[in-house]
Design goal:
106 residues
Length: 106
């Protein structure tokens, strides 16, 4: 299992044991992270699974890719480190990852 910490807009923290090879979004939904709505079920079409990658992890995960960018732009989210959690596959290298969830998904 891979430990991932979600920090809600109100500052509440919750660490989950994420399963490898599933998306960050699938792990969040499966572990009851309420701020990750995932309305489109991981198709990068709704933007309700946005997360903000902690600065220490941005180099590991990189910037949003071409599949994510149109949805992020449509959401008008210009927050540094914004990604769609449905487009991040959990790997052992992500053990200890910290992400924040937007106020709009509270």
């Amino acid at each position: 299992m891979v430990a991932i910490t979600f920090i809600a807009a109100d500052g509440a923290e919750r660490t989950i044991d994420a399963s490898e090879d599933l998306s960050l979004m699938e792990n969040a939904v499966g572990n009851g992270i309420e701020a990750i709505e995932a309305v489109c079920s991981g198709n990068a079409y709704c933007g309700t699974c946005r997360v903000y990658i902690d600065p220490a992890w941005r180099g590991v995960l990189g910037e949003a890719g071409e599949i994510e960018l149109p949805m992020i732009e449509a959401a008008g989210d210009e927050t540094p480190g914004v990604r769609l959690s449905c487009q991040i596959t959990v790997t052992p290298e992500l053990d200890g990852l910290v992400v924040r969830t937007p106020v709009s998904q509270s």
